[in-house]
Amino acid sequence: MPGMFSTKGRYALRVMSDLAVHEGWVSLGDISKRQGISRKYLEQVTSLLLKGGLVDSQRGKGGGYKLSRKPEDYTLGEILRVAEGGTLAPVNCLDCSSGEICEHIKTCTTLPIWRDLGVVTSQFLDSKHLTDLIASDNPKDDVTTLASL
Asked: Which pTM was predicted?
């Protein structure tokens, strides 16, 4: 499993973090430069965030995007659900958003593990806030920890 979350989810967290540390309206061009993400892809991500009610937008000179609430009022789970299409399910068979139930649900021996992982993941991400990402003591350079994952 190369990753539980898509690029949209990861970039949504980066966009929201960027908006949290910059006051007023922030242009996509500025976010693109700071985050090293193409403007075209940022348009897709911010569109999801806007539709999800997480950001506000303003067109024209001096416009851009800004958070619709205070950073401490966002959970990382909420942001990821908006960016990932509503679910944090670790495997497709637990994603009930399609309305389909896995045909192996009654016989699958792995289902309890995936279900429990989904619960733990959701609880963890719902306990973390946008302010946790922008905290000055957030260790961004701990390569040893990252290498062990």
From this structure: 0.84
